[in-house]
Amino acid sequence: xxxxxxxxxxxxxxxxxxxxxxxxxxxxxxxxxxxxxxxxxxxxxxxxxxxxxxxxxxxxxxxxxxxxxxxxxxxxxxxxxxxxxxxxxxxxxxxxxxxxxxxxxxxxxxxxxxxxxxxxxxxxxxxx
Length: 128
Prior knowledge:
2 helices, 33% strand, extended
């Protein structure tokens, strides 16, 4: 009986310590660098936006892109012919690291529906 109570006490203590360790983290909003474009039709053949056909493509760079890249892990295998370019892709979010210009993440939304859409065009991730 004492052994069972001790085990329960240790389990409870571990849970409390784990909760406390997680509670130390603080939600912090940070500034970021990037750009965006509002357009209609498709990103690779964009036209002026109109009601019912308005999309936005975002490109984040710097620390925000690095943090996103790091959180996404691991790299896409055989992503680019140039092995120095590292790509991480999750659904409609695409991030890359290239030594000469750092981190970059692309994503977008269809503003008419609110749905997530890609923010980069095909092989542009390896080229540019």
